[in-house]
Amino acid sequence: MTNKIELGDWANRLNNIASIELETAEKVREIATPFVPFLSGHLSNNTEVIQDDMGAHLLYTELYAHYQYVGVGFKHTTTFHPQATEHWVEKALEANPGALEKFVKGKLLNG
Q1: pLDDT band at 111 (very low <50, low <70, confident <90, very high)
Q2: Which residue, of 19, 22, 27, 37, has the fewest CB within 10 Å?
Q3: pLDDT per residue over 9-41, tens digit each?
């Protein structure tokens, strides 16, 4: 005697974890954007979400992005993004507790 259990869409979502990783990186970009220094918009608007064998990554592609992120060499402006700061991803996630977990849970459970 055998029992067949249909996991349906839920199992398909788990088998396609790469898609969820990409969507999660996009969500991180969305949550972090108000915290990215913004004067001309080059830093905030020049981002890429890429995926490789290590997972999904959010890249800020301006040459000075690292210096802004660690708070060295450039003073960031809050003219257009009043919450702008260094380490903006961490600050954004701290300011939105549980938002990323809720997003991922929703993707896994509801698609």
Answers
A1: confident
A2: 19
A3: 766 666 677 888 999 999 999 999 999 999 999
For residues 61 and 99, give the distance between their C-alpha atoms in angstroms, rounded to a whole number.
25
Give me the DSSP letters along the chain.
-------HHHHHHHHTHHHHHHHHHHHHHHHHGGGS--SSSHHHH-EEEEEETTEEEEEE-STTHHHHHHT-SS----SS-TT--SSHHHHHHHHSTTHHHHHHHHHHHH-
Give the contacts of 93 (CB within 8 A, at least 6 positions apart).
Answer: 28, 31, 32, 99, 100
Q: What is the pTM of this model?
A: 0.84
Count of domains observed in the chain? 1
Q: Is residue 3 part of a domain?
A: no
